[in-house]
Structures are given as structure tokens and as C-alpha cells.
Amino acid sequence: MSTILSLQNLIKTFGGLMAVAGVSFDVEDHSIVGLIGPNGAGKTTVFNLITGNYRPDSGTVIFARRGITNMPTHKIVQLGIARTFQTIRLFQEMSVLENVLSGCHCRMRAGLFASMFHTPGQRKEERLAVQRAMRELAFVGLDEQYTNLAKNLSYGNQRLLEIARALATEPSFLILDEPAGGMNTQETQDLMGLIRAIRSRGITVLLIEHDMHLVMEVCEKLVVLEYGAVIAEGGPEEIKTNPQVIKAYLGAEDD
């Protein structure tokens, strides 16, 4: 397998706080990798450094053999990285379909003139975008709700809508920030199948998740953070029995 994403000695501070302390790890193409650790370990900050929401103080992010450190977020999306957020960020007053269409936008080529005058090329592009959006809604199981307002969906379905919108950007790499947050047991089980189905489309998945059952079931590799630094890396079985990981999650009695 080839490496699709490589983080090299990323450092990020906020004021005097070291949020990310020299993080390095690789993600293999077509894999499912979990980034785990206690609350405040720096996981979402690492995601924000990958996607351009934050700029690192030092270190390098390489995606598909191309340096993307400090690249604007919209350029990173165009290169093929999409994400969802820990806190749902949908257009609540827009329809389910319109939300997914907003993801299609980054691949549309019609300029201002074509949009203003509804040229044949622009109308065709709009039709294709609607078809693509509906395919992604069907993929996550929301196609029958396409006319509903996003705010009227259940919390679990809003999570799925975020995933559909991210997929509409045609990514090769998908970052999921706590996708099972707020989901019930059955929804979480269905999500596991969805993540595997995303990978079967040739899309690499990197996720943060506190649901350890989900992480252990779907991830082939886990990277564990504590206090902004990588303390362990390996397969689920290896990580499960790692004393340093157990201590980070459960604490340890003083000797």
C-alpha cells in the first residue's frame, strides 16, 4: 500500500498551551484509520491542521505526495480531502438536497456569466449536480427525505447528511470527526457498515471517535494521542493491550 497522507512533526500552540506536540504518522491509501485519545488530547486540532482550518507553527502535511501545509481550505478540498465536524455544521434552513448540492459546488465549473444567464452548459451542470447529490443521499439512506429541511432531521440523520455533503465533493480522503456522536446503538451499527462502504469506493477514511466498539471494529490502524503527542500506533488488538494507552484512558494508581 502507498501512503496517501503523511504528517511530519506537526506543532501547534495556542498562547502558552501546546495543543499538538510534534505529531507524526502516516495513513495508507484505501485504509480506515482511527485517531483516538482522551478529551483534550489534540485530536480535532490535528484534523484542523490537515484541512487548513489551522496553520501549524512548524511541521509538514503531505497529501498524495504534495505538500499542503498552509494551503487554503478550499484548495485542500479541491485536491480531494473532505471532512465532517464534531459539532454539526449544516445549513439548517435549507433542504436536505440543497445541503448536499453545496458540497457539489466545488466541482462545478460554470462561471458568473453562465450562472446569471442560465446557459445550456450551466443548466446541464446543475442537472448533473442534482443527480450526484441524490446518489449520495441514497448512499447514506436519506434520499426519501430530500425535500425536508435539515433542521427537521433526527440528530443521527443530520450526521449522515454531513457525510453525504462531504462525499458530494468527490473526495479521495474523508475525515470524520466523531461521526457516531449522538447516535443510538442501531444507528452506530449502521454507521460502521457505511464507513466500510465508503472505503469500498476507494476512499481513505481517517476518523476521531470515542465509541471504542466502533473504532475497534472498523479501523485497521489506530493512532493514540495524549497531551498533543502520539503515545502509540498499531492495530486494534495491539492498542487494546498497550499499557500506556490503558493508563492514558483509565489512569493508573501511583506505585
Keywords for this entry:
255 residues; Rossmann fold; six-stranded mixed β-sheet; 10 helices
Secondary structure elements and pairings:
Elements lengths: L2 E12 L2 E12 L3 E5 L6 H8 L7 E6 L2 E2 L5 H7 L1 E3 L12 H9 L7 H6 L2 H21 L14 H13 L5 E5 L7 H16 L3 E5 L3 H7 L2 E6 L2 E6 L1 H5 L2 H8 L5
Parallel strand pairs: 3-8, 3-9, 6-7, 7-8
Antiparallel strand pairs: 1-2, 1-4, 4-5, 9-10
Structure commentary:
With 255 residues, this protein is an alpha/beta fold. It folds into two domains: 165 residues, P-loop containing nucleotide triphosphate hydrolases (Rossmann fold), CATH 3.40.50.300; 76 residues, no CATH class. The chain is 39% helix and 24% strand. It has ten helices and ten strands. A hairpin with a 2-residue loop joins strand 1 and strand 2. Helix 3 packs parallel to helix 6. The longest helix has 21 residues. It is globular. About 3% of the residues have low confidence.
Continuous helix count = 10
What is the CATH architecture term of the largest domain? 3-Layer(aba) Sandwich
Structural class: alpha/beta
Which CATH class of the largest domain? Alpha Beta
Tell me the CATH superfamily of the largest domain.
Answer: P-loop containing nucleotide triphosphate hydrolases
Q: Total number of β-strand segments? A: 10
In percent terms, what proportion of residues is strand?
15-25%
The count of domains is: 2
Give the mean pLDDT. 89
- Largest β-sheet summary: 6 strands, mixed
Shape: globular
Low-confidence stretches: 110-117
Radius of gyration using CA atoms only: 19 Å
**Helix content percent band:** 25-40%
- The H-and-E topology, N to C, reads as EEEHEEHEHHHHEHEHEEHH
In the CATH scheme, what's the topology name of the largest domain? Rossmann fold
Amino- and carboxy-terminal Cα gap:
43 Å
- Strand order in the largest sheet: 6-7-8-3-9-10
